[in-house]
Amino acid sequence: MKWALAFQDEEKFRRREQEHPERELEHALSSKYESLNYEISENQLYRDEEGNPDHHMKLWHRSRNRWIVCFLIGVITALIAAAIDIMVHYSQQIKFRIIIKRLLSKCDKETDLTGAGCMWTVEIAWMCYNCLLVGVAGFLVIFWSPVAGGSGIPQIKCYLNGIQIPEVVKLKTLISKAVGVACAVGGGLSAGKEGPMIHSGAVVGAGISQGRCRSVPFDTGLFKEFRNDRERRDFVSAGAAAGVAAAFGAPIGGVLFSLEEGASFWNQNLTWRMNKNYNIWEVPLFLMVGIIGGLTGALFNHLNSKMTEFRKKYVSNKWRRLVECLLVAAISAFTGFITLFLVDDCQPVGVNPNITEVNQMWCKKGEYSAVAKLFFQNPEESVKALFHSPINSFRPWTLLIFSLEYYLLTLWTFGLSVPAGVFIPAILTGAAWGRFFGIGVGRAFPNITGIDPGKYALAGAAAQLGGIVRMTISLTAIIMEATKDITFGLPIMLVLMITKWVGDIFNEGLYDIHIDIQEIPILGWHPPKMSRNILAEKVMRPDVVAMERRERVARVLAVLRATSHHGFPVVDRIEESAHSSLPDYGHLKGVILRSQLVTLLEKRVSYPFPSRSQNFFTSTLVHLLNLYRLFAFNKKQQDKSVDSLGLTMSDELCWMDLEPFIHPHPHRVPLNASLSFIFQLFRGLGLRYLAVVNDENKLRGIITRKDVARFRERRSNRKYQVQELYIAEDR
Amino acid sequence: MKWALAFQDEEKFRRREQEHPERELEHALSSKYESLNYEISENQLYRDEEGNPDHHMKLWHRSRNRWIVCFLIGVITALIAAAIDIMVHYSQQIKFRIIIKRLLSKCDKETDLTGAGCMWTVEIAWMCYNCLLVGVAGFLVIFWSPVAGGSGIPQIKCYLNGIQIPEVVKLKTLISKAVGVACAVGGGLSAGKEGPMIHSGAVVGAGISQGRCRSVPFDTGLFKEFRNDRERRDFVSAGAAAGVAAAFGAPIGGVLFSLEEGASFWNQNLTWRMNKNYNIWEVPLFLMVGIIGGLTGALFNHLNSKMTEFRKKYVSNKWRRLVECLLVAAISAFTGFITLFLVDDCQPVGVNPNITEVNQMWCKKGEYSAVAKLFFQNPEESVKALFHSPINSFRPWTLLIFSLEYYLLTLWTFGLSVPAGVFIPAILTGAAWGRFFGIGVGRAFPNITGIDPGKYALAGAAAQLGGIVRMTISLTAIIMEATKDITFGLPIMLVLMITKWVGDIFNEGLYDIHIDIQEIPILGWHPPKMSRNILAEKVMRPDVVAMERRERVARVLAVLRATSHHGFPVVDRIEESAHSSLPDYGHLKGVILRSQLVTLLEKRVSYPFPSRSQNFFTSTLVHLLNLYRLFAFNKKQQDKSVDSLGLTMSDELCWMDLEPFIHPHPHRVPLNASLSFIFQLFRGLGLRYLAVVNDENKLRGIITRKDVARFRERRSNRKYQVQELYIAEDR
């Protein structure tokens, strides 16, 4: 009878989902994301292990290995970042030096585009090459590793927040991310390689620290002590930091995350030395730039989220998605080409030293095309040009048209099924309109000298990026490190703050929007305001599946089959309730993990009689039980893993003594604890679950991370409200 | 009978102290430091307040005020730092330009020191001036504000860790810190102004955010919403960050703390641009520098801790301490003077541009004294000279002698009763021996060019500082920002890591040593290793003083008088125990704070019968109760505060209903929770106390921060052990 509880419970979960059809479909949390577990299960075996005389040695080895792993993470992340850079470089070299230059040399550039078909040949070759590269990127993402699409920062943010995003730190994700981003950037998309580099670093961190790779499969047998969620998170965080350092040449920005854990490494391909100064009266102008950045950023996020929803609905088919990638590649190439032709902005080479042949295009000998300089270089080079070129290097309208086009292209590109970041495109867009703004200021106040549009380009870059991603601390660090000068620290900070204020009036940052769209149950930094009157009773799920300290194998099996829970509270007594369909649980005694139960079943740690299992287990068992077992969370695999244990009917009649294996003091809150209190426990301690007990310490419910994440702060008309989402299955 | 419990308990505390006379006196925690309370007491009134319609407005005002306060903190901290700089500058100007120059001009520098008494006149004038300034600094610290002595970083570290250090963020501390450090540095002590600037920033943060000043007393009535420990800590942290930024011109180092909270500000007086590069084969040499730094740093810390203990024993008298200050001032001045005379290191002015007249001293016209350049400039200038001067600017022996002397002087100065930091002295010492090391390397490998001793001076500076304070993250950030170049990031990081490894073999960082010496109950970053077998039962104090939900005024008064506890658990029932002298407590119902009890008594919220106080309290009471009341924690004042309420005999017979005022869900752990679990709760959530309950949620004891801090990790011979300190009263 008691054994049937699990099934009954499961049905109830289902019913619960169907009970609220009136709720809007848009606001839900997906049930496909499980939480990571950062808590250590301190069972009796674990404690005994600490008394073991060679435990000291283990602690030493662990701390030594931590340094080794961090060093390796730094080096390998840097190598991968360098490899991406090299791939991008050569793919562009092939494009510019070989394809374009050879074809161009055959053309008579003085004739009209319509007149000579030759220019069309160049354009088509250009498009085809870009489409080929972008096609490879799209293919990798769409058909091999979907999680490698996009910038990867939202996924890593969620992972570090404690959410298990399937496949996010796998080797195949790394490969398709690295190759894909090189193809996407090399293929002329309006895409950055920074986000993907950070994601790559995170994968490296996860892979090396585990000393094995599931995809190949390949197990070095090393670093077994790091095979748990807690250690892995730390290494993923170190890897992401190494990725930041590698991508931005911003070691402080990156190192501040990871230094205490170990070494780091970086290259310096993104440094814009600013040797300029600003005047105090320019600060209001910078603030205006910040406001523009906030507005355009909020608009970007709004349009991008609409576009993502559209994409979700209508570009659902895999081939359609590939076609979209190719379409964007072609249009990106075409836009550059047509702008180049229509906007006649030829500048004498004399004023600017870094001119390659490609920049000449339709211009006369001794001149170069400012548009080509913006469109057809490495984006990093274009940014440098916008910051540092002399005052007349770009005509204002060139800048405006370019920034508008690039803004729209970036809008379309972000969310495409290729690995693509938004950092550099946003910086480039902002630098272009910032420079335009600066030129405008110079013309408005012709009597004042010292208005260098390059300064406004920097402010615009910061504003556009800040308006889209809404970070302040790390962006300031990254931009200041990239400009290598503290002089602009204050204006950049001000710009970023204004930008954030303005942008936050309308919507959230781009990454958060994408996290929302993917229905990932992330927890913010602070509990929702006005959440002190929402009590544990309301937050918890009362239909909890608990176990007694001694259970029949059959009941354990039934529970494992019927539920996909990661852990089960253990109580001293389960009784049927007189007034409720839910059972009456006794005092909370601990928690046992699914992985531990499966291991116990696998090792047949069960007895014919419900007695205590004295001295039955040996100290080696602790290794088995604390082994880091990654469970696939979809139903099929999990059923398989229980059924594949091959338990016989007689096995099922045996009894298990769970007591030595339970974590004896799980976190618990009383029924009247407030949501904000619960939130702080989850956030401060990285919990996965929390038991809710009544005044007598009897189990009354359980709160998981998702239950907490359901409650979101919404602000409207100066009022704070708590919005309650529901958890959607099968989405 | 129940009322007598409090007294009985108190006696037991006393006995407990005396029970363990065998414990060494050196290892104890002082009972004079109370914890701060970062938890919000969510009583019913507080929750009702959230339902109040104008609560939204309050949230808006609070968030606006937060920005205003942060902006003010930044500006005022920067002004104070600038004022300190200006005071130092002018005191040195007076010394060099007026006193020394005038007197020197009368002397015949070519004659011997012994020959002409004139030079002695200069020396004595010099000493007197220095002693005068240092005397002022010492007087301020010794007779007015003792907590202003030293660098202030250990105190701020403890404050942010959650410990109430009396007077640490008072106005008078700020005044004597700022004036004192200017006098100490101006008075030629081997002292830095960075630590005191950070401390000053922290005081500014505390003062402004509270909108009032107790010392004057002066209350603007503003920012009342920030008058609690939690908010104050955040602002103190922002202030300290502003102090870092102001002291080091290192906004990222500082801003990373505070940016999300608000604006920051800085000046740029400490920037050492390095336009050099290093070779890969130099890395092992840098590592050697790191090892030397680790060893000399560990020796420094060891000697300084011995010296501090000596000082504690023998320089206990106030006047003795003042004499010691004067002695150090005189000896510092004398050392410089005598070295200048004995070490004959005259350099032609030609090779170095920044030579003032003071630097000439005994040298011929057209020459300057390298010793004077080291001893008699601003230390920052000396550091710059060591980093940037051409290869032959200093003779090696000059450097060695200088670094040795400065090392010893710094050793003696740190811990003296004047405000004095250790950053710049350590950097200067390290830069001197680092440059010496660099010259040695150059001579050892005469065939290799490119060995610039300036690079080794930088590495030495980092190593010496790292060896003493053992920070890695923030030091790297600060040094890299100060050198304004990422090129040296990697070697500096390596040097700092090696230094930390080497130093940590021998002892802890200087700040931690001083925290230990002062017996402050600080919690580290991680729980002590091997602490999973120490259970809550052992950590807790079983002799807890609890209350029922309805209590007689007389019993509340008795408890308040007899104990100095900050909060009291509330249970549903207190009964005498059959088997123990301790009472049997019922189910844990909540916690009530001392400040709330005093306010309730003050407002006479009591009734003649033990009934529920329906509708008796109004919403305005919530303000009274949540008012931030700072309690003096020594016995006398606290008795006064209860007795001064003027309660009559008939008042004492009344009953209080505590229920609406209790925090209904305090953090609790079961008896079998491990120390490491408890530690993580305290550290992760900033708790002040934790209730320990049995399996039925009945109160069994209480754990305070001090009880947790008692357990320290000690490592010997590759074994980790947990050392248990005891809490000493009246020390």
How does this structure look, described?
The structure is a homodimer of 731-residue chains. Chain A is mainly alpha-helical and 731 residues long. Chain A folds into three domains: 1-30 and 525-610 and 646-730, CBS-domain, CATH 3.10.580; 52-107 and 117-261, Clc chloride channel; 279-518, Clc chloride channel, CATH 1.10.3080.10. Helix content of chain A is 54%, strand content 9%. Chain A is built from 27 helices and 20 strands. In chain A, the strands form nine sheets. Chain A has a three-stranded mixed β-sheet with strand order 8-10-13. Chain A has a three-stranded mixed β-sheet with strand order 15-16-17. In chain A, strands 1-20 form a two-stranded parallel sheet. At the A-B interface, helix 2, helix 3, helix 9, helix 17 and helix 18 of A face helix 2, helix 3, helix 9, helix 17 and helix 18 of B. Chains A, B: Keywords: CBS domain, Chloride, Ion transport, Membrane, Repeat, Transmembrane, Transmembrane helix, Transport. Chains A, B: It is found in: Membrane. Chains A, B: The chain crosses the membrane at residues 67-88, 124-147, 235-259, 279-301, 322-343, 406-428. Chains A, B: It is a multi-pass membrane protein. Chains A, B: It holds the Pfam family CBS.
Summarize the topology.
The structure is a homodimer.
Chain A (H helix, E strand, L loop, with lengths): L4 H14 L9 E3 L3 E2 L8 H8 L3 H51 L11 H28 L8 H9 L1 E2 L6 H16 L7 H17 L1 E2 L4 E2 L9 H20 L2 H8 L24 H32 L3 H25 L3 E3 L18 E3 H6 L3 H10 L7 H18 L9 H22 L8 H17 L3 H11 L5 H18 L3 H8 L18 H4 L7 E2 L1 E3 H10 L4 E5 L2 E2 L8 E2 L2 E6 H9 L18 H6 L8 H9 L5 H4 L2 E3 L10 E3 L4 H11 L3 E5 L5 E6 H5 L1 E6 L2 E6 L1 E3 L3
Parallel strand pairs in A: 1-20, 8-10, 15-16
Antiparallel strand pairs in A: 2-3, 4-5, 6-7, 9-14, 10-13, 11-12, 16-17, 18-19
Helix pairs in contact in A: 1-21, 3-4, 3-6, 3-7, 3-8, 4-6, 4-11, 5-19, 6-7, 7-8, 8-9, 10-16, 10-18, 10-19, 11-14, 13-15, 14-15, 15-16, 16-18, 17-18
